[in-house]
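Sample A.
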Amino acid sequence: MSLDVGSVAPDFTLKSQHGEDVSLSSFRGTNVLLVFIPFAFSGICSDELAALRDDADTFEAAQTQILVVSCDHFFSNRAFADQQGHPFPVLSDFWPHGEVSRAYGIFNDEVGVPNRGTYVIDREGVLRWMVQMGIGDQRDLADYRAAVAELS
């Protein structure tokens, strides 16, 4: 599936690291920064999410909810989020395996995990910005800030 900026972001419901159901549509009225990561506990993923954690106030001030998605089981995501001190939901796209990652066009069939994808979704659920990168490519936090700033 191909997503286009300006289209409605695909809705989903996934388990958070606490085993709670979280739906994208429940954040209508709030901007969302949706971040797909390949592997909990990996170096690049840990670095990227630490940068988001350390800059969470910027996104909160912009009324933007950070949601992270991996194909790891929610128990693994819990250990990862607890160890790293992530204040945002880390959602599990474990089963059906990669279903949401596929809906966003970011699932890597060869490896069985999402590539790195980031999506800025506005208060009405419309995709306003996105970047898709390979597993080994690190994203730039400044790009997220700029994209979110455009929504204000």
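Sample B, a different protein:
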Amino acid sequence: MNAFLLGILSSLITSALLLTLSLLRASRPLWWLTSACSWFTGTGLRRVYRRQSAAEQNMSQDLARARWIKVMAGRGNILTREAFAPLWSGDLSPASVQILLPDPDTSHNSWLDRRSEDVARFDPGFTPGLLRSQVRSNINYLAQAAGAQRNIRLHNYNLPHTCRVIATDKVAYLTFYSDNTHGRNSPCLYVRAPGLLYTIALQQFDTAWMNSTITPTTTPSAGGPS
């Protein structure tokens, strides 16, 4: 009888382990497990995208619900893609939009140049001055797309390129840059407020904003969160 019960018990344990492994292979149950762990630790981490580009669809939904938006990017390509298109067309109208991009007109040996040198080590097509040119093109795009909207402010910064932050009043997408891959290929953390990682994301943005300069091609507007 004991052998029979042990056989049933071992079968149940094996089935439970297989079910658990199959659930962990699926993305949404794994997100649920991550959320449960973050609730205990207070980090606010809800999801981890293997690549930041995979987060854009969910990002669009969060931007549509935002009261305010803050973006700190190392290049700004995300701002020209579909996730932000409703913002430039006027379909979205948050109270405040603050955007930080690197200053493409700083002297040589700036932090922008240092990031460019890092990228050139693993991307042979990345020539000197290319990153400056790409940032400048994105600034010109934003100046044209958002020039008539007074709730949008664009600033430049000259600080280390350590991360990308896209934050709203409820969530933040946080990508830490690596020196051996493009930002688009780096993992992206999805965090919610309140939480430690959400607070860190806002601190990163606010520190850079306080040390930034107004982009000459845009018209600054008052108000909005700092």
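Observation for Sample B: The two ends are 71 Å apart (CA to CA).
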